[in-house]
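Late entry, evening session. Most of the bench is empty. Finally got around to the prediction I had been postponing all week. Sequence below, unchanged from the version circulated by S.P.
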Amino acid sequence: MEENAYEIYSSLSRDVGVRIIDGHFATQHSHITHYVDMTAVKSKMINARAAAKLIAQKVDTLPVDSIVTLDRMKMVGAFLAEELSASGVNVGQNINVFSPEISGDKMILRDNFIPFVRGCRVLILTDSITTGLSVRGVMEGIGYYGGMAVGCAAIFGAEFPCNIPVEKIFDITSIESYSSYSPQDCPLCKSGVKVDAVVNSYGYSRLA
C-alpha cells in the first residue's frame, strides 16, 4: 500500500504538504480511494505554523472569538489564533482555542468550556472534510450552546452543502481520481476489492 504513496504541496508554501496513499479506505462515514496523511502538518511546529498562515489568509475577514479544533488540529489552531489576532478584523483579540468532546457526530461541552461558545463567533478547524457530517454536527452543537458558527477551515476537503464559508488548502481536484462513496454504494466493495485500512484522524490501521 505505502509503495503507492506520494507527496503534494501547496503552491504557496513547501512547508505545507500532505502524503497521499492510493487504495481502498474506510472512514467513519465513507469509503475513499486515497488516504491523505497529514501527520507532519498536525505534529511538526514549522509545518503547523505554515498551514495556519495559509488558512489565516483565507479567513482573516471573519470576526472570530473562538476556534473549535477537531481531529488533533489544536497546534494548527493555536498558530491560527496567533495569526488572526496579529492583524485584520481580529487584531488584539485573545481568541479561545479548544477541542471539544465528540460523541458520534455530536459536540459535548463541559460547563467550563460553555463560555467559549455562548455568545461567541466560532470558527471550526478540522483536518479533512469528506461528507461534511461531522462539521454539520459541530455546527449544530455550537448553536445549541448559544454560539454562532462563522466559518470552517480544513487542510483537505470536498464540497458539501453548508451555509457558512468553508475554506481548504487542498481539495479533491488536488488528488487525481479521488473519490468518496457511502459504504453501501462503494463500487470497490461491489467489485470485491478489499478494504486496505481503516482510517481516522490518528492515522490508518492496515487490515490483514
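Two things to note before I forget:
The chain has a mean pLDDT of 95.
The helical segments are 39-43, 45-59, 74-86, 133-144, 187-190.
Will write this up properly tomorrow.
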